[in-house]
Specification:
heterodimer; A: 526 residues; alpha+beta; D-Maltodextrin-Binding Protein, domain 2; Dipeptide-binding Protein, domain 1; Dipeptide-binding Protein, domain 3; 3 domains; 4-stranded antiparallel sheet; 17 helices; 23% strand; B: 312 residues; mainly alpha; MetI-like fold; 2 domains; 12 helices; MetI-like_sf (chain B)
Chain lengths: 526, 312
Amino acid sequence: MRNLVTAALTAALLAGSASAALSVERGGVLHYGRYADSLFLDPVLNDANVDIWILSNLYDTLILPTDDGKGLEPGLATEWTVADDGLSVDLTLRKGAMFSDGSPITVDDVIWSLKRAANPDNGIWNFLLGSVEDVVAKGDDGITIKLKHTDPAILPALTVFNTAIMPKKQFEAAEGDTDAEKAKAFAEHPVGSGPFVLKSWQRGSTMTLVKNEHYWDKGEDGKPLPYLDGIEFDLLPDDATRILKLQSGEIDGAELIPYARVEELKNAEGIDMELFPSTRVANVIMNVRPQVDGKDNPLSNEKVRQGMNYAANKQAIIQIVTHGVGTPMSSYMSSATPLHTGEGAVYPYDLEKAKALMKEAGYEDGFSTSILILAGSQDEIGSATALQQMWAQIGIKLELQQVDNATRTQKYRDGEFTMRAGAWTDDIADPNEITSYYVYSPNIDAVHSGWKSEKADALFEASQKEVDQKKRAEQYAEIQKIYNATGPIIPLYETPYPVALRDKVHGFLQIPLGNNVFRAAWMDKQ
Amino acid sequence: MALLSFIARRLLQLIPTLAFILVVIFVLVRLLPGDPASAILGDRARDADVVRINAELGLDQPLPVQFLVFVKNIATGDFGNSIHLKVSVASLIADRLPVTLMLTIMAALIALVLSVPLAFVAATRRGRLADNAIRGSFQVGLSMPVFYVGLILLTVFGAQLHWFPVGGFGNGFFDQLYHLFLPALTLALSLAAILMRNLRAAIIGVVDAEYVDFARAKGLRSRVIMTRHVLRNALISTINLFGLQVGTLLGGAVITETVFAIPGAGRLMIESIYGRDYPVVQGLTLALAVVVSLTFLLTDILQAWLDPRVAQ
């Protein structure tokens, strides 16, 4: 009987949610509180998450990432095929697609955009298109991307912001002599083909986007997307103010809610506390060079690093720093990254094992070391303070050094650090980006740690050309095994993106790569 | 006449001061570890990208060469472009500085309106209940950190009572005044406390002076004595203090602007220092130096007017 009631209730609830899904409402301006302002709205030349994470609303790409950030969906291209030899990709362009100024998107625009993105002189993202040799027209409505070598990540690369399609004529008509100057002028009034258009931008205060009347995709009601009339990004750098403004109803959504406030907002009336799955990982990066500052470096010893890993109680750190929001890491890459392997924490807490490893390494009495953390970052200060206490149990004295970001980056690039707190978010639905920075030593010395594994380097190079998915998965399993066992990091935790929305907001999404997707967002009319 | 030549002298003194500030800030900002490329690329900075970006910005040139270029540009009124925001520094300052000035002026006015009458009341009722109550409540205002006061005001008057917006800046002059009231009040509270204490002590000092006894003996009405003799003399030290506090007020604006999400110069300065945005830091420092210098000049003039001996 009870089961019957439950079943009936479930059915009623399902029916209710099904009808709710049908009653999409149009119109309204969604006010969204951001922690920092954008800097530069050029897809190719930008270099910061504050730009990257909103660019897809303004500029469309040939292929779109699926909601889980792992798969592919048609965007400005409706179909694609990779040649049997893996050395070229044919894409068919969407018929009738237009830029926000009403001009048609031509084969020329697509070719020019991709070549600009792949140009090694342009920006810092061209490495994602490093395999591209040429882009040529294929008939009136298609292109062929010719590759220097096979590239298993070429399709995901076409979902990344830097491959967005821009109008060649309008860009070239912009003021300036060089590409960089033109980009500067163009980005003040960008023309793209995303669901929204930039209307105005008061730097440091608000950015207003309005609906793109020429957007190609249709909503559930059969009419063109987006549902909203517009979005207003309000810049609210202080966490407490951003939350207050949401609670008072002056904004409809707020990003980057501090972990300490998540539980409270989950229980708050009228607010949906969303935790969107992400590819964000937090870790500690160690300098493993034999000598640092002219002194012998204990961290160069693999056993010491393993001992420190075992002595770090990640579950406790997750409770202290993320208030239970985070999850333990099972590899150096997030579990939302394709080809991730591993289950459970990489190094489950085991103080006895840690002590044994330290003894084996000849550091039974420990040593003194230091960690660079961002001044004012509650998360990093919290993690480092916890580690300080945990490592004291194996005799390690940890000194906390608080510095600003530019200082830390400089010391890190110069190899003048012993440890630093680090974090990473993927930009592409492929493991190659994080692996090229963290593992592959020719790029940036494995996050400037000085760590090097010839085997991992060779596996990565092979995996960059391996089109057989199964073989590539095996290569990545091997890379992860090597790195997780001997690598230069202490993996701490993965965290979702904490976004709080008024409960009248529906259909908003932040995908694991960080993109804020407003194309299907809508609000109840009150 | 003495006053005019005094002003002219002070304006002339401004030139070497500003030149000195220019040199110091140019060197200081470059002494900070890290460069604009490291600041913006962060953890993902690759050597080739850093070298390329620094070359684009002319930061690969020797320091003296960079300084000559900088001075040459300043001489033609060109403060350069922001490295991160890609817009001209002059336009950024024109957008942001007035916001901070508006906030600071409002805060100063609120502080004066609060402190002068209450100092008067406290001084004339020395040791009585009113005096203790006023001093006690100002003490609380003074000892609470600015960001905390700001959050309390935001929570109570913004989020709960809805009398004021929860941060932001608004559009149009009156809407902006409305948005700026709570942040200005936040800034004003600690300043008012300092001014009130100082003015109260000064009034007490003056009230006991012999010339006040003399004025009383002449049979002047106590209101005349209070405004013409006591307040005028007591204000001299308070105005001096007020001028000195303007720098502090501008510093406090950094925190207030962050808590209240106001797009002012304080926040721009902090972001630019973190981002190693050299042109913005240089331009903004110069602009703020001019503002502070002019405020000092203004307080000196006021003092000279209250006490003609100052100008001699």
